[in-house]
Amino acid sequence: MENERNHWGCGEKVSTVQVNFGLLGPLEIRRNGQVVSGPSGKKRSMLAMLLLHPEGTVTRDRLAGELWGDFPPPSAAANLRTHVSGLRSWLGKLFHDAAESELVSTGTGWALNMTKCGEATTDVDRFEVDLAHGRKLADDGHLVDAEPLLRRAAMSCRGLPLQDVPQGARLAARAAVLTAQWLSGVEEYADVLIQLGSYEHARIVLHELVGAHPTRERAWGQLMIACYRDGDLTAVVKAYRGAREALVEELGVEPSVEFTSLYQAILRRETALEEIRPFRVVRPPVRRSVREPMTM
Asked: What are φ and ψ of residue 241, in 5° steps?
Protein backbone atom coordinates (compact mmCIF):
# COMPACT_ATOMS: atom_id res chain seq x y z
CA MET A 1 0.00 0.00 0.00
CA GLU A 2 1.43 3.37 -1.02
CA ASN A 3 1.96 6.00 1.65
CA GLU A 4 0.64 9.46 1.06
CA ARG A 5 2.45 12.43 2.56
CA ASN A 6 2.91 16.16 2.10
CA HIS A 7 5.96 17.57 0.30
CA TRP A 8 6.71 21.23 -0.16
CA GLY A 9 6.94 22.10 -3.83
CA CYS A 10 5.17 18.90 -4.84
CA GLY A 11 1.53 19.72 -4.25
CA GLU A 12 -0.46 19.03 -1.13
CA LYS A 13 -0.42 15.24 -1.27
CA VAL A 14 1.49 12.76 -3.44
CA SER A 15 2.07 9.02 -3.37
CA THR A 16 5.52 7.86 -2.37
CA VAL A 17 7.53 6.68 -5.36
CA GLN A 18 10.44 4.32 -4.86
CA VAL A 19 13.08 4.46 -7.56
CA ASN A 20 16.28 2.44 -7.81
CA PHE A 21 19.03 3.36 -10.25
CA GLY A 22 21.35 0.53 -11.28
CA LEU A 23 24.74 1.70 -12.52
CA LEU A 24 26.81 -1.45 -11.93
CA GLY A 25 26.17 -2.79 -15.40
CA PRO A 26 23.80 -1.44 -18.06
CA LEU A 27 21.73 1.46 -16.73
CA GLU A 28 18.67 -0.03 -15.07
CA ILE A 29 15.90 2.08 -13.58
CA ARG A 30 13.09 0.59 -11.52
CA ARG A 31 10.10 2.58 -10.31
CA ASN A 32 8.17 0.73 -7.60
CA GLY A 33 9.82 -2.47 -8.80
CA GLN A 34 8.99 -2.04 -12.50
CA VAL A 35 11.70 -1.40 -15.09
CA VAL A 36 11.30 1.92 -16.91
CA SER A 37 13.23 3.38 -19.84
CA GLY A 38 16.02 5.82 -19.11
CA PRO A 39 17.08 8.94 -20.99
CA SER A 40 19.37 8.56 -23.97
CA GLY A 41 22.48 10.27 -25.33
CA LYS A 42 23.94 13.17 -23.39
CA LYS A 43 21.04 13.23 -20.93
CA ARG A 44 21.95 9.65 -20.01
CA SER A 45 25.53 10.73 -19.31
CA MET A 46 24.31 13.71 -17.27
CA LEU A 47 22.07 11.48 -15.17
CA ALA A 48 24.98 9.14 -14.42
CA MET A 49 27.21 12.07 -13.45
CA LEU A 50 24.58 13.42 -11.09
CA LEU A 51 23.83 10.03 -9.54
CA LEU A 52 27.52 9.47 -8.86
CA HIS A 53 27.80 12.83 -7.07
CA PRO A 54 24.99 12.63 -4.52
CA GLU A 55 26.93 14.77 -2.07
CA GLY A 56 26.44 18.00 -3.98
CA THR A 57 26.72 20.03 -7.13
CA VAL A 58 28.08 18.92 -10.46
CA THR A 59 29.37 22.13 -12.00
CA ARG A 60 28.59 23.39 -15.49
CA ASP A 61 32.26 23.11 -16.43
CA ARG A 62 32.46 19.51 -15.23
CA LEU A 63 29.33 18.53 -17.13
CA ALA A 64 30.48 20.31 -20.28
CA GLY A 65 33.87 18.63 -20.06
CA GLU A 66 32.25 15.23 -19.70
CA LEU A 67 29.85 15.76 -22.60
CA TRP A 68 32.17 17.51 -25.07
CA GLY A 69 35.73 16.93 -23.85
CA ASP A 70 38.40 19.55 -23.45
CA PHE A 71 37.11 21.73 -26.27
CA PRO A 72 33.34 22.29 -25.92
CA PRO A 73 31.66 23.96 -28.92
CA PRO A 74 30.49 27.59 -28.65
CA SER A 75 26.93 26.30 -28.30
CA ALA A 76 27.81 24.13 -25.28
CA ALA A 77 26.23 26.42 -22.68
CA ALA A 78 22.92 26.65 -24.55
CA ASN A 79 22.94 22.95 -25.35
CA LEU A 80 23.64 22.14 -21.71
CA ARG A 81 20.58 24.12 -20.61
CA THR A 82 18.51 22.23 -23.18
CA HIS A 83 19.75 18.86 -21.90
CA VAL A 84 19.09 19.90 -18.30
CA SER A 85 15.56 20.91 -19.21
CA GLY A 86 15.00 17.56 -20.92
CA LEU A 87 16.42 15.63 -17.97
CA ARG A 88 14.29 17.60 -15.52
CA SER A 89 11.20 16.77 -17.57
CA TRP A 90 12.14 13.09 -17.61
CA LEU A 91 12.65 13.08 -13.83
CA GLY A 92 9.24 14.67 -13.41
CA LYS A 93 7.62 11.84 -15.33
CA LEU A 94 9.69 9.26 -13.44
CA PHE A 95 8.31 10.55 -10.17
CA HIS A 96 4.75 10.80 -11.54
CA ASP A 97 5.00 14.50 -12.44
CA ALA A 98 5.58 15.35 -8.80
CA ALA A 99 9.24 16.27 -9.01
CA GLU A 100 9.59 19.60 -10.75
CA SER A 101 12.56 20.48 -8.54
CA GLU A 102 14.30 17.12 -8.42
CA LEU A 103 17.07 18.64 -10.55
CA VAL A 104 18.12 21.65 -8.52
CA SER A 105 20.05 24.63 -9.89
CA THR A 106 22.75 25.60 -7.41
CA GLY A 107 24.18 28.64 -9.19
CA THR A 108 27.40 26.93 -10.29
CA GLY A 109 25.71 23.83 -11.66
CA TRP A 110 23.05 21.27 -10.76
CA ALA A 111 22.36 18.65 -8.12
CA LEU A 112 19.81 15.90 -7.68
CA ASN A 113 17.40 16.10 -4.76
CA MET A 114 15.57 12.83 -5.18
CA THR A 115 14.29 12.64 -1.61
CA LYS A 116 11.85 15.51 -2.08
CA CYS A 117 9.02 13.67 -3.80
CA GLY A 118 9.99 10.05 -3.44
CA GLU A 119 12.60 7.59 -2.25
CA ALA A 120 15.58 6.96 -4.51
CA THR A 121 18.59 4.68 -4.14
CA THR A 122 21.49 3.53 -6.31
CA ASP A 123 23.18 0.15 -6.41
CA VAL A 124 26.52 1.97 -6.13
CA ASP A 125 25.56 3.31 -2.69
CA ARG A 126 24.54 -0.13 -1.45
CA PHE A 127 27.64 -1.77 -2.95
CA GLU A 128 30.02 0.71 -1.32
CA VAL A 129 28.35 0.40 2.09
CA ASP A 130 28.34 -3.41 1.95
CA LEU A 131 31.96 -3.56 0.81
CA ALA A 132 33.23 -1.13 3.45
CA HIS A 133 31.29 -2.79 6.27
CA GLY A 134 32.20 -6.30 5.13
CA ARG A 135 35.89 -5.41 4.90
CA LYS A 136 35.86 -3.93 8.39
CA LEU A 137 34.24 -7.02 9.87
CA ALA A 138 36.66 -9.32 8.04
CA ASP A 139 39.67 -7.28 9.14
CA ASP A 140 38.42 -7.49 12.73
CA GLY A 141 38.08 -11.26 12.48
CA HIS A 142 34.28 -11.43 12.33
CA LEU A 143 34.22 -13.67 9.28
CA VAL A 144 30.73 -15.11 9.70
CA ASP A 145 29.24 -11.61 9.89
CA ALA A 146 31.39 -10.37 7.01
CA GLU A 147 30.42 -13.18 4.63
CA PRO A 148 26.85 -12.08 3.71
CA LEU A 149 27.89 -8.46 3.21
CA LEU A 150 30.82 -9.35 0.96
CA ARG A 151 28.65 -11.88 -0.87
CA ARG A 152 26.09 -9.18 -1.61
CA ALA A 153 28.85 -6.80 -2.75
CA ALA A 154 30.33 -9.52 -4.98
CA MET A 155 26.93 -10.11 -6.58
CA SER A 156 26.25 -6.40 -7.19
CA CYS A 157 27.71 -6.10 -10.68
CA ARG A 158 25.49 -7.08 -13.63
CA GLY A 159 28.29 -6.31 -16.09
CA LEU A 160 30.78 -3.51 -16.53
CA PRO A 161 29.74 -0.41 -14.57
CA LEU A 162 28.03 2.24 -16.74
CA GLN A 163 28.15 -0.30 -19.55
CA ASP A 164 25.66 1.42 -21.88
CA VAL A 165 26.24 5.02 -20.76
CA PRO A 166 28.16 7.30 -23.16
CA GLN A 167 31.36 8.09 -21.28
CA GLY A 168 33.76 10.98 -21.31
CA ALA A 169 36.95 11.08 -19.25
CA ARG A 170 35.31 11.42 -15.83
CA LEU A 171 32.69 8.71 -16.22
CA ALA A 172 35.25 6.36 -17.76
CA ALA A 173 37.56 6.93 -14.78
CA ARG A 174 34.77 6.32 -12.27
CA ALA A 175 33.70 3.16 -14.12
CA ALA A 176 37.29 1.89 -13.94
CA VAL A 177 37.44 2.56 -10.19
CA LEU A 178 34.11 0.79 -9.59
CA THR A 179 35.34 -2.19 -11.60
CA ALA A 180 38.55 -2.36 -9.57
CA GLN A 181 36.61 -2.13 -6.31
CA TRP A 182 34.27 -4.89 -7.39
CA LEU A 183 37.07 -7.21 -8.47
CA SER A 184 38.84 -6.65 -5.17
CA GLY A 185 35.56 -7.22 -3.33
CA VAL A 186 35.02 -10.58 -5.04
CA GLU A 187 38.54 -11.63 -4.08
CA GLU A 188 37.97 -10.60 -0.47
CA TYR A 189 34.71 -12.55 -0.44
CA ALA A 190 36.60 -15.61 -1.70
CA ASP A 191 39.24 -15.02 0.97
CA VAL A 192 36.56 -15.13 3.68
CA LEU A 193 35.09 -18.32 2.19
CA ILE A 194 38.52 -19.95 2.27
CA GLN A 195 39.07 -18.96 5.88
CA LEU A 196 35.64 -20.31 6.80
CA GLY A 197 36.47 -23.63 5.14
CA SER A 198 33.95 -23.23 2.30
CA TYR A 199 36.48 -24.42 -0.26
CA GLU A 200 34.05 -25.71 -2.86
CA HIS A 201 32.08 -22.46 -2.87
CA ALA A 202 35.30 -20.46 -3.04
CA ARG A 203 36.39 -22.50 -6.05
CA ILE A 204 33.13 -21.74 -7.87
CA VAL A 205 33.45 -18.00 -7.17
CA LEU A 206 37.09 -17.90 -8.23
CA HIS A 207 36.65 -19.98 -11.38
CA GLU A 208 33.97 -17.54 -12.51
CA LEU A 209 36.23 -14.59 -11.70
CA VAL A 210 39.36 -15.80 -13.50
CA GLY A 211 37.21 -16.98 -16.39
CA ALA A 212 36.10 -13.40 -16.98
CA HIS A 213 39.32 -11.72 -15.75
CA PRO A 214 42.15 -14.20 -16.44
CA THR A 215 45.00 -11.86 -15.47
CA ARG A 216 43.90 -11.53 -11.81
CA GLU A 217 46.94 -13.14 -10.24
CA ARG A 218 45.61 -12.81 -6.70
CA ALA A 219 42.44 -14.69 -7.64
CA TRP A 220 44.48 -17.48 -9.21
CA GLY A 221 46.50 -17.72 -6.00
CA GLN A 222 43.33 -17.98 -3.96
CA LEU A 223 42.08 -20.67 -6.31
CA MET A 224 45.26 -22.68 -5.82
CA ILE A 225 44.84 -22.52 -2.03
CA ALA A 226 41.15 -23.44 -2.18
CA CYS A 227 41.91 -26.42 -4.42
CA TYR A 228 44.77 -27.56 -2.20
CA ARG A 229 42.76 -27.34 0.98
CA ASP A 230 39.95 -29.18 -0.81
CA GLY A 231 42.39 -32.02 -1.46
CA ASP A 232 42.69 -31.49 -5.20
CA LEU A 233 46.36 -31.12 -6.08
CA THR A 234 45.68 -31.77 -9.76
CA ALA A 235 43.46 -28.67 -9.85
CA VAL A 236 46.26 -26.67 -8.22
CA VAL A 237 48.62 -27.54 -11.07
CA LYS A 238 45.94 -26.69 -13.64
CA ALA A 239 45.30 -23.35 -11.94
CA TYR A 240 48.99 -22.42 -11.98
CA ARG A 241 49.33 -23.35 -15.63
CA GLY A 242 46.16 -21.44 -16.49
CA ALA A 243 47.42 -18.36 -14.68
CA ARG A 244 50.83 -18.49 -16.33
CA GLU A 245 49.31 -18.97 -19.77
CA ALA A 246 46.95 -16.01 -19.32
CA LEU A 247 49.66 -13.70 -17.98
CA VAL A 248 52.12 -14.56 -20.75
CA GLU A 249 49.61 -14.43 -23.59
CA GLU A 250 47.66 -11.35 -22.52
CA LEU A 251 50.28 -9.27 -20.69
CA GLY A 252 53.58 -10.73 -21.85
CA VAL A 253 54.80 -11.27 -18.27
CA GLU A 254 55.66 -14.27 -16.12
CA PRO A 255 53.88 -14.89 -12.79
CA SER A 256 55.24 -12.84 -9.90
CA VAL A 257 57.72 -14.16 -7.35
CA GLU A 258 54.97 -14.21 -4.70
CA PHE A 259 52.67 -16.26 -6.90
CA THR A 260 55.36 -18.76 -7.89
CA SER A 261 56.50 -19.08 -4.28
CA LEU A 262 52.94 -19.86 -3.21
CA TYR A 263 52.69 -22.55 -5.88
CA GLN A 264 55.99 -24.12 -4.84
CA ALA A 265 54.94 -24.10 -1.17
CA ILE A 266 51.77 -25.97 -2.10
CA LEU A 267 53.72 -28.55 -4.12
CA ARG A 268 56.05 -29.09 -1.13
CA ARG A 269 52.96 -29.64 1.04
CA GLU A 270 54.36 -27.38 3.70
CA THR A 271 52.49 -27.79 6.97
CA ALA A 272 52.56 -24.03 7.50
CA LEU A 273 50.45 -23.60 4.40
CA GLU A 274 47.28 -23.78 6.47
CA GLU A 275 48.34 -20.45 7.97
CA ILE A 276 49.12 -18.84 4.61
CA ARG A 277 46.54 -16.42 3.27
CA PRO A 278 46.49 -15.41 -0.39
CA PHE A 279 48.94 -12.58 -0.93
CA ARG A 280 47.15 -9.28 -0.66
CA VAL A 281 47.24 -6.17 -2.76
CA VAL A 282 47.05 -2.60 -1.56
CA ARG A 283 43.42 -1.65 -1.95
CA PRO A 284 42.07 1.87 -2.43
CA PRO A 285 39.54 3.10 0.10
CA VAL A 286 35.92 2.68 -0.86
CA ARG A 287 34.48 5.96 -2.01
CA ARG A 288 31.59 6.38 0.39
CA SER A 289 28.67 8.46 -0.82
CA VAL A 290 26.60 10.38 1.70
CA ARG A 291 23.39 11.99 0.60
CA GLU A 292 22.88 15.37 2.18
CA PRO A 293 19.61 17.29 2.12
CA MET A 294 19.62 20.12 -0.39
CA THR A 295 18.48 23.61 0.42
CA MET A 296 16.85 25.99 -2.00
From this structure: -65, -40
Closest by CA to 265, choosing from 243, 231, 236, is 236
Amino acid letter for position 93:
K
- Residue 93's pLDDT is 85
Over residues 94-124, the pLDDT tens digits come to: 877 554 557 888 889 998 876 655 678 899 9
Residues 6+ apart with CB under 8 A from 181: 127, 128, 131, 284, 286, 287
5 φ/ψ angles, rounded to the nearest 5 degrees = -150, 165
Task: Label residue 154 exposed, middle or buried (CB < 10 Å: 0-12, 13-18, 19+).
Answer: buried
pTM for the structure as a whole: 0.84
Collapsing DSSP states into helix, strand and coil, what is residue 55? coil
Which band of pLDDT confidence, cut at 50, 70 and 90, is reported for residue 54? confident
**Is the pLDDT higher at 277 or at 161?**
161
Chain centroid offset of residue 9 CA: 33
- Average pLDDT for 19-43: 94
Mean pLDDT of the chain, nearest integer: 85
- CA pair distance 52, 44, nearest whole angstrom: 12
What are the DSSP E strand ranges found in the chain? 4-5, 14-15, 18-22, 28-31, 34-36, 58-59, 103-105, 109-112, 119-122
Burial class (CB in 10 A: 0-12, 13-18, 19+), 254: exposed
Residues 102, 115 contacting (CB under 8 angstroms): no
* Contacts with 16 (C-beta within 8 Å, 6 or more apart), sequence order: 2, 3, 4, 5, 118, 119
